[in-house]
Specification:
Distance between the termini: 22 Å
Protein name: Lipoprotein
Organism: Andreprevotia lacus DSM 23236
Number of domains: 2
Shape: globular
Order of helices and strands: EEEEEEEEEEHEEEEEEEE
Keywords: Signal
Strand content: over 45%
Number of helices: 1
Strand order of the largest sheet: 13-12-11-18-17-16-15-14
Length: 218
């Protein structure tokens, strides 16, 4: 299934306090209110969704957990994640990367899918992924969920853990020699039959930049 997304990167809605230094007069910098992000909430499950406008719709993947955490992935024309909309359980929606105006997303439609079960023992093996901006990462995934660099211009290592979102496990990655990608990111390892021939997808960020690596068995 091709997912082509046409909407631009949008924004991060959260309240960030700007830390101002004290002067002799005791003045300080006032807190800055960032634009808000609102995304239609769906019940727990995995969905293919349409969003945008009727004249220029986009499609996406939406994951919702029973604890209230959610993830909406918006891709670019090359099927790489362009914007992530994330909601922690009980928290506000956030967007990575941030943009410059308030966002309110109402879905045109949502089609429930059957979420995959992530079996790390069955996924264990050696993989190669194209790195955004050029180069490759060759790495191994062990049955215990650990990832280790095994070649390529981008050195990738990390570990996995429990995640609430359907079809996923949590992942913490350390990257070296990967161009403009961040050195450390957190996110999810996603499994979906629609990703074939890729076996899985490493989707993570550092709060500012999205890292999207599609893993192909070597």
């Amino acid at each position: 299934m091709k997912r082509i997304f046409l909407i631009p990167p949008l924004l991060l809605g959260s309240l960030l306090a700007a830390c101002g230094g004290s002067s002799d007069s005791g003045s300080s910098v006032a807190p800055t209110l960032q634009p808000s992000v609102q995304v239609q909430a769906l019940p727990a499950g995995s969905y293919n969704v349409a969003l945008g406008s009727d004249s220029k719709p986009a499609v996406g993947q939406y994951l919702a957990a029973a604890d209230g955490s959610r993830l909406l992935v918006v891709n670019d024309d090359n099927e790489l994640a362009q914007t992530l909309y994330k909601q922690a359980a009980g928290g506000a929606w956030q967007s990575v990367p941030a943009a410059s105006a308030p966002v309110s997303i109402t879905l045109l439609r949502s089609d429930a899918t059957s979420p995959a079960t992530v079996d790390l023992a069955r996924l264990a093996g050696r993989y190669v992924a194209q790195v955004q901006g050029g180069g490759t990462a060759v790495f191994t995934l062990a049955a215990d969920g650990s990832l280790s660099a095994a070649g390529g211009s981008c050195q990738l290592s990390g570990k996995t853990g429990v995640a609430a979102l359907p079809g996923s496990v949590a992942v913490n990655l350390v990257l070296s020699g990967c161009g403009s990608l961040p050195a450390a990111v957190n996110g999810v390892l996603l499994v979906d039959a629609a990703y074939a021939p890729a076996r899985f997808r490493l989707l993570a960020d550092d709060g500012k930049q999205v890292v999207d690596l599609w893993a192909y068995a070597e």
